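[agent] plan:
  1. take the single chain provided in the ticket
  2. run structure prediction with default settings
  3. attach structure tokens to the ticket
  4. add a short note for the reviewer (M.T.)
[agent] executing step 1
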Amino acid sequence: MGISQFVNDSRRILKLATKPSKKEMWMNTKVSILAMFLVGMLSYLIQVLMTIITGNWVGT
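[agent] step 2 finished; step 3 output follows
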């Protein structure tokens, strides 16, 4: 794949791409926020479980 092929492919993709609507953007934002919240909760639960398992409570 040469540079000219890459430029042609990129140009073709840019012609097909469209700007998302406000509704689609809002849906993507909500899904991203929900995913970040779930990953954060999962990591918090893992940290609490590991603290309990190792008996390394802070303040004891």
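[agent] step 4 note for reviewer: The chain has a mean pLDDT of 91.
[agent] ticket updated
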